[in-house]
Amino acid sequence: MEVIVMIDGNVTTDKLNTWLSRRAERMDALRELNERLKRNGSICESVFVDSSNWFAPNGSYFYIGQVFASIHHCRVIYAQTDCDREMVGYASVLGDQCYAIAGNDSDFFIFDVPLYIQLRSLHFSYRAKCLDFVGCYHRDFLSAVEL
């Protein structure tokens, strides 16, 4: 089995405003968190750092891809257009050899992919040698929304 990591290298023109808005929201959330930490000091136990606020600095995706590429049985593909659509297209080409797509985008519910795994939900237990995640089969999603 091989893991394929697709990195969203470009922001397409049609998604630029959405990308800028989300990036600004994350920056605001991180500024607010920083201010709360300054006010409350290091003993602040009520601060929960939501991983959805994290984003890689500009230009670092190339290096993140290099880290993944150094892992045995892991291939890295840098998307040239809309990464979601490239992932779905690549999964379609692989057919039965594609078991799941992991991502952070609810768009995958509308695409015919075998299993969508919420990337943020992935948790590997080295001790138990198991991988836990939250996912949804496309057919189950369609059944749940009665389509």
Automatic annotation (TrEMBL):
Query: Which top-rank group of organisms is this from?
Result: Eukaryota
Its GO CC terms?
Answer: nucleus
Gene3D superfamilies per UniProt? 5'-nuclease
Say which family it is in: Belongs to the constitutive coactivator of PPAR-gamma family.
- The name this protein carries in UniProt is Uncharacterized protein
Source organism per entry reads Reticulomyxa filosa
Which lineage ranks, top first, belong to the organism behind this chain? Eukaryota, Sar, Rhizaria, Retaria, Foraminifera
